[in-house]
Amino acid sequence: MESKYLYPTREAGREFITREIQGPVVMLNQLRFREVADYSTAQDLAPDVPISGREAYNLYVRHTLPFLKESGGDILFFGKGGHFLIGPENEYWDAVMLIRQQSVSSFLAFEQNEEYMEIIGHRTAALIDSRLLPVEETKL
Fold first, then answer.
1. Domains of the chain by range and CATH?
2. CA dist 38 to 22, 24, 30, 82, Å?
3. Phi, psi at residue 128, to the nearest 5°?
4. Does residue 80 contact residue 33 with C-beta atoms inside 8 Å?
5. Are 4 and 112 in contact (CB under 8 A)?
């Protein structure tokens, strides 16, 4: 299975910014891991022995967390996924994660951090597919 969605498109980025979300934003991450991590585009980050996509993602999170916290963000939830109760029968996600950021601007600052960009190859090596949905809190 080849990669489907690992990076935002220019149009999606523009739409995210023009939504003008005020205050905190929560990022809903749906993650599907590779059986074996593929470090072909980040060979300088590759471990000495092959590892699973889940292990590569754990490396990504461990290295990313200081940058995330420095930018005012935090992991609210990380859990094991599976098949939908309501949704496409053939679609599944290995893991789901909720990240809270103080604002869109703090999220963008985190994403553009040069030191963070140096380790993003762990994420690319880990994932075969993903979804990222910015969520804005509203009142019922």
1. 24-135 (3.30.70.100)
2. 37, 33, 19, 22
3. -100, -25
4. no
5. no
By the 10 Å C-beta count (0-12 exposed, 13-18 middle, 19+ buried), 90 is classed as exposed
Pairing of β 127-135 and β 74-83: unpaired
pLDDT digits (tens, 9 = 90+) for 76-129: 999 999 999 999 999 999 999 999 999 999 999 999 999 999 999 999 999 999
User: What per-residue confidence (pLDDT) applies to 1?
Assistant: 44
Coil/strand/helix, residue 47: coil
Establish how many alpha carbons lie within 13 A of residue 54's alpha carbon, considering only the half-sphere containing its beta carbon. 9
| 95-105 pLDDT tens trace | 999 999 999 99
